[in-house]
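Deliverable D4.2, example record:
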Amino acid sequence: MSRVLVIESSARQQGSVSRELTQQFIANWQAAHPADQIQVRDLALEPVPHLDATLLGGWMTPSEQQSEAEKAALARSNQLTDELLGADVLVLAAPMYNFAIPSTLKAWLDHVLRAGVTFKYTETGPQGLLTGKRAFVLTARGGIYAGSGLDHQEPYLRQALAFIGIHDVQFIHAEGLNMGAEFSEKGLAQAKAKLAEVA
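Output generated by the structure prediction step:
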């Protein structure tokens, strides 16, 4: 039995293509792996605060010297990190906002990319500690960006995940969604076809 952690980051609850892709992923995965546990964390319904001095204090201040706010920030970071540590498969649903990922997803990453927990510094440089995990990234894009210099999603997420030891990463892009019906239908159909193969 594997544990699957799904991170939703679309600001929209209705009419969201990335959420549509996530629902198909979950349905396909459950059909192929009925014993697996799937946890969904929705960053729109439960926003994660952006990295600030309070969270840094929670990480770096000795426990006996922490303020109540720092303790709460550390507890939240620990919960998010524990969810990631316990997952065998990570699914990131990432609509493209202004050529990159939603700020809510960046905030989540800032909580879980933690020295000594998900990576460590060594004499030869940083080393990821989350080896053996798989990740799927489901994107929704108004234009067609894959492989272009305007795609700041895939390179960034590949680097961030590799930094913590997750190298087995598959991207599934639904592109051209705002380029008219023909492009939109084709982009969504291609993404759903790839999702059917993944499970």
